[in-house]
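Human: I wish I could look at a protein chain and see how it folds. This is the protein in question:
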Amino acid sequence: MAMTVLLCTTLRSEAQQLPSEFNYQGRLTDLNGDPVSDTVAMTFALYDSDAGGSPLWEETQPSVDVADGIFSVRLGSVEPFDTWGIEFSQQYWLEIEVEGDLMTERL
């Protein structure tokens, strides 16, 4: 399934308060730019560099509802960040796959 995704998120942690989960929203379109309406599997992964390496954290959400291109997920709800040692004390890059297809360069 070939698609593109427009990413919109805010990763912000307050001093001394690390997130256990955070909301991530995006817009999913097909290759023609038409919004997708479907339920899809999405895999999210955090890296410590913009290319290469192994994921420091990842989770698959098997049934993400996409309505008129818009989706919203709670990252960390399947695989808690702290069990992977993610402390949000440095910059991370997010990689997203939809139905096994890599959507964009890391953000």
